[in-house]
Amino acid sequence: MCDCLFCKIVNGDIPSAKVYEDEKVLAFKDINPQASVHFLVIPKTHIESVDAINEDNSDIVSHIFRLIPQIAKSTGIKNGYRVITNCGPDGCQSVKHLHFHVLGGNQLSEKMA
After folding, report:
1. Domain span including residue 18
2. For residue 96, how far is the Cα from the chain centroid?
3. What φ, ψ does residue 19 adopt, rounded to 5°?
4. CATH of the domain at 76
5. Residue 75 and residue 101: Cα distance in Å, rounded?
6. Of the residues 38, 97, 99, 101, which is catalytic?
7. Are the C-beta atoms of residues 32 and 100 closer than 8 Å to each other?
8. 52-104 pLDDT, tens per residue?
9. Number of domains the chain contains
10. Are strands 100-104 and 81-84 parallel, antiparallel or unpaired?
11. What is the C-alpha separation between 67 and 85, in angstroms, rounded?
12. pTM
């Protein structure tokens, strides 16, 4: 998708503060952090949302979740973290490219809203 913000970041058209990258995944700092450590993990292949995960692309989601603990540790998170993804308009998905927010580095609020 040529107009997808995250695809442009993957392609290097828009800069990001990378915290991890491999052939399938990119992780970068959130531009509007909600915790002392807040980064996004995205597949390099465009998947619109959780609703678009299927047999053909579910391996990338598994890969992402195997990496999250490693990336969290490398960013200094020690005592736990929160992983969040938004899906669709009512879920407040602002970028239509599957992404996981990882927040940590300090005690998070129990409130989710």
Report:
1. 5-104
2. 12
3. -115, -15
4. 3.30.428.10
5. 14
6. 99
7. no
8. 999 999 999 999 999 999 999 999 999 999 999 999 999 999 999 999 999 99
9. 1
10. antiparallel
11. 16
12. 0.94
